[in-house]
Specification:
Blueprint lengths: L5 H11 L6 E9 L2 E9 L4 E5 L6 H8 L7 E6 L2 E5 L4 E2 L7 E4 L11 H11 L4 H14 L15 H14 L4 E5 L7 H17 L4 E4 L3 H7 L2 E6 L2 E7 H6 L4 H7 L2 E13 L5 E16 L4 E4 L9 E13 L2 E7 L4 E6 H7 L6 E6 L5 E4 L1
Parallel strand pairs: 3-9, 3-10, 7-8, 8-9
Antiparallel strand pairs: 1-2, 1-4, 4-5, 5-6, 10-11, 12-13, 13-19, 14-18, 15-16, 15-18, 16-17
Length: 370
């Protein structure tokens, strides 16, 4: 008899998934110098990617939701069940929360086989040894490891260990799934393969899922919504399109590769904090963000002729090769990143420390409210 393929297992698993509710959380935690204060709602079946700089509080948020970090104040409700409510003294212990967690470094028990690692959560919840092992073997097959049941973690590759960790998190049918950098420990080839499989598993999972990642490509591939956390606060929460096209902080803009400025709009002019001015084709008044794609930035060795609306001088601070394009970092009163071809760099003889003129058409300045 031919064994079912992983995709077939996924289809069957999706049909068998019990109905689950969403997550509603207000989490305030003080941990060392971190002051975390976040409100977050995740619908059943929704995959949300958490992004932010190191130390922003992303992992602390996941650990608080899992019950591994105590709240200073707040309330967490999952699938209609209150897990935390500091105002009423409610705090459900981690093992009773129904949260499946996948850690960056797998955290498999080294003395247990792959099957026993997967069965551990089931046994902790009272399932007998025989049925727990059968379920574990079943889940290993679902994640593409039908022959790894007896293998110890030291005999597994990084990708295989990540699959075992995922199977362990999913085996007891959690109400929510929390994943902390699940692919970061893998090499590039393994990451691409596991990312595809992980997305299929997340689509089959019926509960709310939160995934921490530093990779915007990974976030876009896995999630339908992005939440950006900086210094313990949510600075942006929206669809992939909204966050990538209308970033609301410098960190996000750098992540998605845009130049971002914040200023005061009066008609077609935007006055920046540096007292520089940008001209836009859009009429606006009040506080705004102005985003400029690096490919919309033109560079010249001498002041350009004609009447371009935005022209300023700068000095080249660095050049980064990205595929067949080169990102030129220009320092000066209005720092900017331009993206040009290697041929343009050679033709203009661009080098670090060289003087250039920057030009941006008014129509290429994208405005939105701050």
């Amino acid at each position: 008899m031919t064994a079912p393929t992983p995709d077939a297992w996924l289809s069957a698993a999706a049909r068998q998934q019990p109905a689950r509710g969403g997550l509603s959380a207000q989490v305030a935690v003080t941990l060392g110098t971190l002051d975390l204060d976040v409100s977050l709602d995740v619908a059943a079946g929704e995959v949300v990617a958490l992004l932010g700089p190191n130390g922003a509080g992303k992992t602390t948020l996941l650990r608080a939701l899992a019950g591994l970090v105590g709240l200073r104040s707040g309330r967490v409700e999952l699938d209609g069940r209150v897990l935390d409510d500091t105002a009423h003294g409610v705090c459900v212990s981690p093992e009773l929360r129904g949260a499946g967690m996948v850690f960056q470094d797998h955290l498999l028990f080294p003395h247990l086989t792959a099957a026993d690692n997967v069965a551990f959560g089931l046994r902790a919840r009272g399932m007998a040894a025989g049925p727990a092992r059968e379920a574990a073997v079943d889940w290993l097959a679902r994640v593409g490891l039908p022959d790894a049941a007896r293998a110890k973690p030291r005999a597994l590759s990084g990708g295989q260990a990540q699959r075992v960790a995922l199977a362990r998190a999913l085996a007891f049918e959690p109400s929510m799934l929390l994943m902390d950098e699940p692919l970061s420990a893998l090499d590039v080839e393994a990451r691409l393969a596991i990312r595809r499989e992980l997305r299929a598993h997340l689509e089959a999972f019926g509960g709310p899922c939160l995934v921490i990642t530093h990779d915007p490509v990974e976030a876009i591939a896995l999630a339908t919504r992005l939440v950006i956390v900086e210094a313990g606060r949510v600075v942006q929460d929206g669809s992939i399109e909204d966050v990538t096209q209308r970033p609301r902080s410098t960190w996000i803009a750098e992540l998605v590769g845009l130049n971002l400025y914040r200023g005061e709009a009066r008609g077609h002019a935007i006055r920046l904090p540096s007292n520089q001015e940008l001209v836009t084709a859009t009429l606006a008044n009040g506080k705004v963000f102005a985003a400029v794609h690096p490919r919309a930035v033109a560079l010249y060795r001498g002041r350009p002729e004609g009447t371009p609306r935005n022209v300023w001088a700068g000095t080249i601070g660095g050049l980064d090769v990205q595929g067949d394009r080169i990102r030129v970092h220009v320092d000066g009163p209005l720092p900017v990143v331009a993206e040009v071809t290697a041929a343009a760099v050679a033709a203009l003889d661009l080098g670090v420390g060289g003087d250039v003129y920057v030009s941006v058409k008014a129509a290429e300045v994208n405005l939105y409210p701050a």
